[in-house]
Amino acid sequence: MIDLGATECIPCKMMAPIIEELRNEYAGRADIIFIDEWEDPAQAKKYGIRTIPTQIFFDAEGREVHRNTGFMDKKRIVAILSRLGVS
Which of 4, 2, 1 has its CA nearest to residue 51? Predict the structure, then answer.
């Protein structure tokens, strides 16, 4: 999962502790990555980001399978990870 946002964006700040918590909980089972698209605008362009935060979920082969724009709570993120087979 990639969370594209910015450290100064309010919804992104709200998600930061959730992303960090998930990164720790899913270590070794799923990659949870934050990209600050204000610092690295090429990534925003690469993924077609128009609004932040945007979360992109990938399957084991690296194909995008789900995209969410806006704040996403931990329960919804965990549900998608579970649907992708990450326990």
Answer: 4
41 is written with which tokens?
A: 């605008």
Catalytic residues: 9, 12
Six-digit token string for 39? 């610092």
Q: What span, in angstroms and rounded, lies between the C-alpha atoms of 20 and 33?
A: 9
pTM above 0.85, yes or no: yes
5 strand-pairing partners: 36
pLDDT of residue 87: 86
Q: Which residue has the tokens 């649907």?
A: 83
Locus of tokens 């964006």: 9
Sheet containing 64-69, strands listed edge to edge, beginning at the edge strand earlier in sequence: 33-36, 2-5, 54-58, 64-69
